[in-house]
Design a protein that fits this description.
The complex is a heterodimer of chains A (354) and B (293). With 354 residues, chain A is an alpha+beta fold. Chain A has eight helices and 19 strands. In chain A, the strands form four sheets. In chain A, strands 6-7-8-3-9-10 form a six-stranded mixed beta sheet, sandwiched between helices. In chain A, strands 14-18-15-16-17 form a five-stranded antiparallel beta sheet, with no helix packed on it. The longest helix of chain A has 18 residues, at 167-184. Chain A is elongated. Chain A starts with a strand and ends in a 9-residue tail after the last strand. With 293 residues, chain B is an all-alpha fold. Chain B has a single domain, classed as MetI-like fold (Orthogonal Bundle), CATH 1.10.3720.10. Chain B is built from twelve helices and two strands. In chain B, strands 1-2 form a two-stranded antiparallel ribbon. The longest helix of chain B has 34 residues, at 65-98. The two termini of chain B are 27 Å apart. The chains are: A alpha+beta (354), B mainly alpha (293). At the A-B interface, strand 6 and helix 2 of A face helix 8 and helix 9 of B.
């Protein structure tokens, strides 16, 4: 039952490297926030600043109405799940979960009750006597979660908790984390580099790049209206296609010199047209927006990805079609863009044009 | 995957282990069996003849109060030395682990004493504690504490313990530092988030995780204090004053080479051999199994 407020939060390391360039955000009570970005974008640093494991150079961090910039990690009433779980290897699962409660001088009965409750929620009741070395990856993950929920903290922090699991388990745990957070209604901040995890878990997402938040919003807001080319390229898989478009008095043209069949925002000589692979469809030549030549086809089962090259463009355009691809490699084919799903960006500032 | 190396040639494997076996036989098995044999003999005062007496030498030893005193003294000396060397090394390793600037410099200086020969280490401390010219001895006397290890047996004992432990600190330090650095940082961070302060973290996380290292070092240090501190004592107190620092290894030397009681001295060294074997077996058995997590 807590809010977290970040006011112009900044971090500069002793060697002068500025990891976080100022972040403002208000995290509402019970909200699931995911911080996503490529490696080195500062997302883990930001989480560690909230945890108190990194000092805050400038700005303010509030949990509820309390300023916690200088507060020890143990006194912030937070719990964190680490990437490699960080279970205490010499303690049983029970002792791992009870550790924080013992420090808080809870009575033995109360500790037992809370550990058992958490163990029931996570279905690890049978493992309480084991040592972490006797557990599988998924079980360790559960114990790490148990250690976090047993204290009933104000905020959960997750630092890429699923990246050490195999693909199948990752999907399963992702759903469980979501359910658990919904049931407990505890504010959660989750760091990942995986955009699928980010999209599926988040109430709101922060896409970070180079120590700055590029955009903050709900997953679908970010998907439907990415504020920058970075967000557009990062959210959604495969990534959005970008096509540089020239605009002059006669109209707008593709790099191939072909004219566009639709209007682009005025007032710019060059614009970057963004279109997602799923918003392009194969059509007949008379309805074509663009003609492509197939370079590679990737069948994924439910869909296929067709990589098509276009004259004047360095990168292939990706087209996503249902079922099997109806075209062959080396063939040319015509595509039409979904007019409602076009995105325009300024190529100099990389920000979205209205 | 095949773990064992297989040789096609039948002779080659034996040739390969031969040098090590030979060294063990010449420098250990042979002298050891000689001393076992000798421990059953009593020589006449002129060394011209000897008589086979079975366990008489051993019986005599355990009836001898000076031997039993030396035994007790050795235990006190060894455990004190091991405790001092281990605790100081752990303290220094924790400090060195926290240092950020000039890390290598500190570590190099802390490891250096290990290169000092035991006899030199002894002499070094002997001089520093010298009641008239030594820095520490003089200082203690100036402060009103009467220090004279030439006369006071307990003070002499403190001196040899300090000198022996000092030499061993570097060795222990390396192990503790490596042990500390192998503890994953997220564990400490997790404990911090769980609300544990630095002292509690040390008690509940760091020290238990170092316990295999600590146990290994305890055995190694005990063996060191039992058997390898001869030069320290020989170069400083020579077992005195009044046998106050005469530990078992020193007594072997004293009785055998000064007292010329070869049989009795051999019996003592056989007992020492049994102790070191026991310690080694203990170490292999428990370091591998019990003290793990």
């Amino acid at each position: 039952m807590s809010t977290v407020t970040l006011k112009d939060l900044k971090k500069t390391y002793a060697n002068g490297f500025q990891a976080i360039h100022g972040i403002d955000m208000e995290i509402r009570d019970g909200e699931f926030i995911v911080i996503v970005g490529p490696s080195g974008c500062g997302k883990s640093t930001l989480l560690r600043m909230i945890a108190g494991l990194e000092t805050i150079t400038d700005g303010e961090l509030m949990i509820d109405d309390r300023r916690v910039n200088q507060v020890e990690p143990g006194k912030r009433d937070i719990a964190m799940v680490f990437q490699n779980y960080a279970l205490y290897p010499h303690m049983s699962v029970y002792d791992n979960m009870a550790y924080g409660l013992k420090i808080r001088k809870k009575s033995t009965e109360e500790i037992a009750q809370q550990v058992n409750r958490a163990a029931d929620i996570l279905e690890i009741g049978a493992l309480l006597d084991r040592k972490p070395s006797q557990l599988s990856g998924g079980q360790r993950q559960r114990v790490a979660m148990g250690r976090a929920i047993v204290r009933d903290p104000k905020v959960f922090l997750f630092d890429e908790p699923l990246s050490n699991l195999d693909a199948k388990l990752r999907v399963q745990m992702r759903i469980e984390i979501r359910k658990l957070q919904r049931a407990l209604k505890t504010t959660a901040i989750y760091v990942t580099h995986d955009q699928v995890e980010a999209m599926t878990l988040a109430d709101r997402l922060i896409v970070m790049n180079g120590g700055l938040p590029e955009q903050i919003g709900s997953p679908m807001e970010l998907y439907d209206r990415p504020a920058t080319t970075f967000v557009a390229g990062f959210i959604g898989s495969p990534a959005m296609n970008f096509i540089p478009v020239r605009v002059d008095k006669k109209g707008a043209t593709f790099p191939s010199g072909q004219n566009l069949n639709f209007s682009v925002p005025s007032g710019h000589e060059n614009v970057l047209l963004g279109i997602r692979p799923e918003d392009i469809e194969i059509t007949t030549p008379d309805l074509a927006d663009l003609t492509l030549k197939v370079s590679v086809i990737e069948p994924l089962g439910a869909d296929s990805l067709i990589y098509g090259s276009c004259e004047g463009m360095k990168e292939d355009l990706v087209v996503r079609v249902r079922d099997k691809a109806t075209v062959q490699e080396e063939e040319t084919f015509s595509v039409r863009f979904n007019q409602q799903k076009l995105h325009y960006f300024d190529p100099t500032t990389n920000s979205r044009l209205p | 995957m095949q773990k064992q190396v297989r040789f096609d040639n039948k002779v080659l494997p034996y040739l390969l282990v031969a040098p090590q076996v030979l060294i063990t036989i010449i420098f250990f098995i042979w002298p050891a069996s000689q001393s076992v044999y000798q421990s059953f003999l009593v020589e006449d005062p002129f060394g011209l003849s000897s008589e086979f007496v079975w366990f008489a030498n051993f019986e005599e030893l355990f009836a001898d109060s000076t031997y039993l005193d030396a035994f007790g003294r050795t235990l006190l000396f060894s455990f004190s030395t091991a405790f001092l060397a281990i605790s100081m090394a752990l303290f220094l390793a924790i400090m060195a682990d926290r240092v950020i600037r000039g890390e290598t410099l500190y570590k190099t200086f802390l490891i250096w004493p290990y290169a000092v020969a035991p006899a030199l280490a002894g002499v070094l401390w002997f001089l520093m504690f010298n009641p008239t010219i030594g820095v520490i001895g003089f200082g203690l006397n100036a402060l009103g504490y009467e220090w004279n290890h030439y006369l006071n047996g307990w003070q002499a004992m403190v001196l040899v313990i300090v000198a022996s432990a000092w030499k061993q600190i570097s060795y222990n330090f390396i192990f503790f530092l490596a042990g500390l650095q192998s503890i994953p940082k997220p564990l400490i961070e997790a404990a911090a988030i769980d609300g544990a302060g630095p002292a509690h973290r040390f008690k509940t996380i760091i020290f238990p995780l170092l316990s295999p290292t600590t146990f290994f070092l305890l055995v190694v240090n005990l063996v060191y204090a039992f058997f390898e501190t001869f030069p320290v004592i020989h170069a400083t107190t020579q077992g005195g004053p009044a046998k106050a620092t005469e530990i078992l290894v020193y007594k072997v030397f004293n009785d055998g080479f000064i007292g010329l009681d070869l049989g009795g001295s051999a019996a003592q060294s056989v007992i020492l051999m049994i102790i070191v074997s026991g310690l080694t077996v203990f170490q292999f058995k428990y370091v591998e199994k019990k003290v793990t997590y």
